[in-house]
Design brief:
274 residues, alpha+beta, two-stranded antiparallel sheet, 10 helices, globular
Length: 274
């Protein structure tokens, strides 16, 4: 809402294709709503996959795509493997520094499955900033250390991590390296901004680069073969798989309604009134 009001998000803009090379395309988001841009570009990647077996779309000049897992579910619902990621403003210290230099770049990988899609939706830090805020609002500590406090000590206190701006990269230096590579590839394919070029102020976080990949399973494996492979892997795993909790939550919310943080609902009411 703040970014719409300050002009960073143009609610009337729609993404346009600016380059095409077979199964690979580059799109300009024109600073339109990030979630609408992302949905359109994943849809285009799916179309390209239907034609070529694989589809790839680089999206530049876009805005925050909100919940990145949405576009994984979008791909899986279409029966394709989907992979997508976005860069962000610098909000995670690179390993070996105390200064935020890399983005908490979300990565989504989705595999379709008739009895429940498998969807991994992860940030480059042990806990995303959204997760930190949720724990803080509930008055809970993190289940495992999620970052550093102002004194440089690992902590489970979400408020302390928010204050220090030092969330812990997943896998320590490995998460730091992965965040760097995701940023680099996104900027290259989208022809857009890299993390160091994105304003550090959250209400000015615009011009992000994103990538959407789709693989058409029907081109390389029939539905029966795909189901057999995925089901066998999950049967051997014997524990909760990525996306299983999301499916359970969706069923619960459809039955009982969606819980909303009171302060967020009050904000929406004030925004609507103004």
């Amino acid at each position: 809402m703040a970014m719409i009001r300050n002009g960073m998000v143009d609610i009337h803009a729609q993404p346009i294709r600016v380059a095409s090379l077979g199964a690979l395309e580059r799109w300009d988001g024109r600073r339109g709503p990030g979630n609408l841009n992302a949905h359109a570009c994943m849809a285009r990647a799916i179309e390209l996959a239907r034609e070529h077996g694989i589809g790839a779309v680089g999206l530049g000049n876009s805005n925050h795509w909100m919940r990145g897992g949405n576009y994984g579910w979008q791909a899986a619902d279409a029966g394709v493997i989907g992979i997508c990621w976005s860069n962000t403003l610098p909000n995670v210290p690179a390993w070996g520094t105390t200064i935020p230099l890399i983005g908490n770049n979300p990565l989504i990988i989705a595999v379709p499955r008739a009895s429940g899609h498998v969807v991994l939706d992860m940030a480059m830090s042990q806990f995303s900033y959204g997760a930190l805020a949720s724990y803080r609002l509930r008055g809970e500590q993190l289940p495992v250390p999620g970052g550093f406090d102002r004194d440089g000590a690992l902590t489970r206190d979400p408020a302390a991590i928010e204050a220090s701006r030092r969330p812990l990269p997943i896998g320590f230096w490995k998460g730091s390296g992965l965040a760097l590579m995701l940023d680099m590839v996104a900027a290259l394919l989208a022809g857009g901004r890299a993390t160091h070029e994105i304003p550090r102020v959250p209400e000015q976080e615009t011009g992000m680069s994103q990538v959407f990949l789709a693989f058409d399973l029907q081109s390389i494996a029939g539905a029966d073969e795909a189901t057999r492979i995925v089901d066998a892997i999950l049967a051997d795993l014997q524990v909760r798989y990525p996306g299983e909790r999301a499916l359970e939550t969706r069923r619960q919310y459809l039955d009982e309604g969606i819980p909303v943080e009171p302060s967020a609902w009050q904000f929406l009411e004030r925004a609507a009134a103004s």
